[in-house]
Amino acid sequence: MTVPIVGMILFPLCLVLWTRPFRILQVLMLAGILPAAAALVLGGLGVQPTMVPAMAFMSYVLLQFAMGVRYPGDRPVMALCLPFLLVVTWTLLGSIIMPRLFMNQVMVWPQKGDSVGGRVLLAPSFGNISQDIYLAVNASFLVVAARFLTRSDIRIERLYRTFLIGGWCVVAICLWQLAHRLAGVPYPDIFFYSNPGWSVLKTQTAGPMPRINASFSEPAACATFLSEVLFSSVWIVLQGYRVAQAKWLIPASALALACTTSTTGFITVAAGLCLLPLAALASGANRLLGNIMRLMLGGAVVIGFGVLVVVTLAPSVVPAVQFVYQSTAEKKESQSYQDRSQVDRDSLELVGQTYGLGVGWGSNRASSLLPGILSNTGLVGGVGLMIFNMTLLRAAIKARRSMPPGPERMVIEGVLPALIGGLIAACLSSPTLEYLDFYLLIALLIAAIARIGLLRKMAAAMRPPALVAQLSLAPIPPCTPVKPDPSQLMHEVG
């Protein structure tokens, strides 16, 4: 057992901040930009850095729960999380039943740690256990964090700003690694890539240009995170929020994403550009269309000016850019794309071979998100997650429309696009979503929705006294005097 540098920082930091759980969540959000590092190495297995603050946070909050502490948004949070918890329950049961029910009947692609270079017959494996542990931890953390963040003394927008600060850190690491690859600037590989369980692709090139993966295991993973940051910062700026970290993060994250030369990132951004006008129309704010046009025009001017500067000062970059464009356009003809597509096709065939039940969580490893979910959890898991996503989306839209601009609404405006960007990228190149910082974003969105619901209930409870006060100040209309009935007066006096 060894403790890398990241663990030497996180363990004492979480110990000091144990009684300040919100600070621990901020630490977790920042630790999420180091997925290829390890906080603790046990043999050939590395513990992800986000696991340390997550365990510290849950231990404190669950101890409070055992002592009788409750949070104001417990009931609305559990109502929003119910579809997800039902899917998790089905998934955990399926990971035990399905590998035994369809044992030696279908062929699956095993997990990386169990890989033998091809498909194998389905059988219970360590992959079922390890993936169940990750899923149980992620689901538990999601619920606990969402309930905790409904505390009235917490400013949840600070956690969203921490997410943006993490985006700036990734941009800086991208530029640092680019300087290392081009000019030999010292770069601490031992700090960023200390997890022995990851195959880090840090020496890839796209023709003469280096492919940047920053602190992630591969360029596609880095592009996925930068897509989340880019989607979030663009929408926040378009909505008119004056967040200092977001305005300049748009060009910075776009530049860093371009440095990855990741097809996943380029397609995700293209999909976001197509969805942007539709989102503006769905929001019902006509001014957003004007903001979008101004943003696109300003972006075109900046890109044009940058291209002129680069072509003038470094003309050798032009052939490299042409090579990247050509390789991206011909991605479907590459051997890696063919292999990944074949894995996804094999995974989708498992749905029919298992009568829509799946092979059990952790039994099959696909190349992208949808085939991975359907092949492992079946149609029940896929439909359940779709219901959860649609429920969360409708609740977010309803909460946004019922609340004027403020901290909770800003969190919804910023987190929802980030989640959409992450899901689009994962549907292209990620078999699962197992990062705790992604689940923290979901918890932040759920907490913002629940807090808006609580604020609306408080406003409704305060409305009758306010209405009475308003009526008491209104002019009394003229009326005809009525002669009192003596018997009635005597009855009232008696």
TrEMBL record:
TM spans (from-to): 27-45, 51-69, 81-102, 133-150, 162-179, 255-283, 295-318, 373-393, 414-432, 438-455
Coiled-coil ranges per UniProt: none
Transmembrane helix as UniProt keyword: yes
Keyword terms of this UniProt record: Membrane, Transmembrane, Transmembrane helix
Protein name: Uncharacterized protein
Organism: Acetobacter garciniae
